[in-house]
## 1
Amino acid sequence: MQSESIESCKRFIREKILQPAEFRGFEEQRTNLLNLMERAVWDHDSNSALLIGPAGCGKTTLVRSVLKELAEKKDFAKKALVINLNGLIHTDDRLSLKSMCKQMSLENVVDERVTGNFADNMALILSSLQNSDQKKALIFILEEMDLFCNHHNQSLLYNLFDLAHKNESAVFVLGVTLRLDVMDRMEKRVRSRFSYRSIYLLPVHDAVDFESRIGLCRSWLFIDTSCFNRTLCKAWNKHINKLLDENEAAYNCIKRLYDMQNNEESTKELLLHAISRLGEDNTTLSGQDFEEALQDVISDGWLQILDGLSTLEICLVIAMKQLGEVYQGDPVNFEMVYSRYLKFAKNHSSFEDCNRNTVIKAFEHLQALEIILPVTGHGAKTQSQYQLYHFQLSAQQVKSAVKRFEELPTEVQQWAELNLL
Ligand SMILES: Nc1ncnc2c1ncn2[C@@H]1O[C@H](COP(=O)(O)OP(=O)(O)OP(=O)(O)O)[C@@H](O)[C@H]1O
Ligand SMILES: [Mg+2]
């Protein structure tokens, strides 16, 4: 294949893979969600629900597909307003409120001058909406919903669920999350306003499903006559069929990734990495391209960051992992981490340097790397050593980082392996 053709072939496949997909499967869950939204919009029947499923299983695609279908119905735009919030962006209630107002075109109602509590502001927003000529049903989509549980008093969640619970105005609140334990994270008063309706997107994992994944790979990697001449299409698609049906290495890479993280997102990522290897000198995909692509996909970005830490910093990471085990994942502050580290360091002569300022510097570096993230929205400013942080790494990641750390003192290795439970 000529280099020009291979470049356009790469571009064509990449665009196909990255294109937003039509939602497939999970018909029952889709109908369920569609009905709930329809009832809110056309029957003014408020409700709330959670959409739960592992990363990349299609939650966002499902919501988009349902909203697209609704948008095509007559009068939807007149009768409903969709408000999108995302826990990663709207990290406290004030930001959430601002974004809500913007999406409702009510920026002038709640502006910087209004300092009342969340419920007051919410009431203000609703009354302005009610006074407008056209009462619209409000559909709130809360992506990364579990992160809203970290907001001060969970006011936003409480007020939204309360609105849906009271059913005075048509409201539908959908929380989208990958955390199965999200209900445990809700405060009791929030839970009591929630409908307890959960829609689960749990991917199946079997031979039939895997074969359909191979079928998807085929459809992504094929080229067609809309952009290429017939001879080229025939030759390329024949090559793809041979690759997927007969090349053991390529097949095994797709299977391994499927077994590790059964989501389409990661299969797409694997194919993108594989086709990025195509070029003038490499005009066909080989098993080796897939093997290298698999390495790229499964190499953990965190591990590369952790490779750059100092011994003191890795000690703090270990201390935080242990605190996470003791306090079951609750946030930690500097004092807790420092005292855990001191306990260890005092018992080991090689760790004489326990200077508080040095440890503070190391702790700040971990924060800059976002290995720890501050818990926000606690009103009055806390002294920095008592500021709470969420630790972002899993026990497995810490274990791998310790293993990879060259010349880590033996006592630190042993301390890392300590099982506290
Ligand atoms: N059932 C499905 N139908 C169509 N596409 C899907 C489906 N499941 C996953 N995908 C594809 O997988 C990718 C990830 O999907 P999506 O972003 O909807 O997942 P998610 O569950 O929202 O993930 P996250 O938890 O990371 O937000 C998208 O490219 C999407 O096209
Ligand atoms: Mg999503």
## 2
Amino acid sequence: MKWTPGELVAFTARVIYEVAERGLTLDYAFQKVKRGWRPLDSFKVFYDVSFDAVRHYFFLKFAASRLFGSSGAKAVAKAWFIYKADQMLYNRDMVSRFRKRLLKRALAAPGDVLREVESLRGDPARYLSIKYSYHPKIVATLLSHLPAEEVEKLLDAGNKTWIWLRINTLKADVDKALKILEAEAEVETHPRIPFAVLLKSSKRPVQYLEAVRRFVAIPQDLASVYAVLSLKPEPGDRIVDLAAAPGMKTSLVAQLAEGRAKIVAVDLSQKRVARMKQLLRRVGAGDAVEVVRSDSRKLKTRLFDKALLDAPCTSSGAFTKEPAVKIYPRLEDAPRYSRIQRELLKNALELAGEVVYAVCSILPEEGEEVVGSVEAAPEKPLEDLADPYGRGGVGGRTFPHIHRSEAFFISRLRALR
Ligand SMILES: C[S@@+](CC[C@H](N)C(=O)[O-])C[C@H]1O[C@@H](n2cnc3c(N)ncnc32)[C@H](O)[C@@H]1O
């Protein structure tokens, strides 16, 4: 069934409301609104527009207040149509007619609003927050660690979508997988990681690509790949993954160890453990991994050679994937997470001589300060990682403007025995 631009704006406004006022993630909000909507042939455009509107929320809210004298969800969705519809909707006539209609009662011209945003440059925190649409707390955090020009590049790059695929060599070799992929998509292989490819364009959404449906290629952010590479898994290793579900990194551990390591995957959440068992089976790592539900802070077990700790965290570095993080970064939860991270890391060092600690967070409280708090020798595990916070190389970071990835902190620690 056909949709109208008015309907698109109304739908987007509902999603914006669910994210901005009720704190839902983009996918939850989208599914909730979709359930109450009339059936459409495809909701793809509605999803893409909702994602884009949430991603640009702070700019659109500012623009909405100037154009319509309101910063409510409906006005924000209308502002999306005025500034962004051209880039996402193919029907130029429809866009221009509806845009004109929206602007009939506008209080300002769209160009004047853009000039007003540029005039804020003298106040970098406010300017960057509005221009690139990040919560002021994210901008302030980054500005306290990095020069303003670098923060601007980071925030700009964080508004792009980078889709990395990991060739699953448990299912097919790289050449064969690339052939299957290239029949439907244009990809770029990472210069130093032959099994990591960036999706440049594709004929269909990533989850419908033949290679992805057959688990020959698995969508996995490059930052996660770096975390697992830092562990250097090898055949014969005894490895424990202490916060493993849903198992994406565990399955790469199995892949890099060529299916010949003894791997134990632990997670506290029953639901996520069930999902992990299913995922590991599907990607061909089921036989290589023993799955355990346990609290990894208390786990007392045999010794391992290596431990991976992809710790629970604020996810404040996940803004390239989850645009709701840009509106609600939940940085105030950092002290609680930091406590759990320290407890988990301390026990990881009891269980294994070598530990890789990773978090998807921009905060030193969850990164550099956690690895600095335990009795161990932390280091930057890979040359490719950056150390922009200048904390003496106790770990490395990934950033969208440098690595075209999510923002992670990764450290390798050796237990002092
Ligand atoms: C960042 S996620 C892990 C993602 C996973 N490594 C992957 O790549 O698919 C953090 C995980 O830690 C788990 N977790 C939280 N507290 C835990 C604890 N005390 N012991 C074990 N797992 C815990 C959560 O259930 C969650 O699945």
